[in-house]
Amino acid sequence: EPEVTQTPSHQVTQMGQEVILRCVPISNHLYFYWYRQILGQKVEFLVSFYNNEISEKSEIFDDQFSVERPDGSNFTLKIRSTKLEDSAMYFCASSDSGRLGQPQHFGDGTRLSIL
Amino acid sequence: GENVEQHPSTLSVQEGDSAVIKCTYSDSASNYFPWYKQELGKRPQLIIDIRSNVGEKKDQRIAVTLNKTAKHFSLHITETQPEDSAVYFCAATDPNDYKLSFGAGTTVTVRA
Asked: Cα separation of A83 and B20, whole Å?
């Protein structure tokens, strides 16, 4: 069964540094998402992406965050200047349609630790 | 925006018994409700979903019910097994956007 893959599995970064989290969505999917989960808390939506542009973003997704689809397979999340509170598990997800009722499939996540 | 409430936060059941998790949502326009199972340190995995034109859906030992009037939906796990131990999240999506709004999660522990 095709899967969403994410790299790295764990990223440790000094506060103020830039990080790029990488995702390879399922190959025939068209809609891509980033979510985050602070330890012990619920999964929170960050941003959705379709047709090479952001379709929606949450209030968490401020100017420090950006997403990009640099080629036909990768989907990246960049945090420009990390803060301690950015420490969380970041999940990428994809779906083959943005229409209602299309399941979103999640990757294994990247654990981001900001020191 | 959508607000999803989930109860209980923890649930301990004896192996073989049933487990029920309940969620409510705030936006009456929401009409897709997936349930995810998350084992420690792993990805949320879709286990069942229901659309608003259906009141109940069943897949082997798991079932989901939806009451649109009351804006609540529930997950039912029958004949629980130790491998059912995990955190379960409900979620809702409204038709105006594509994001999932998650509940806070229920930690289910199945006692052998």
From this structure: 39
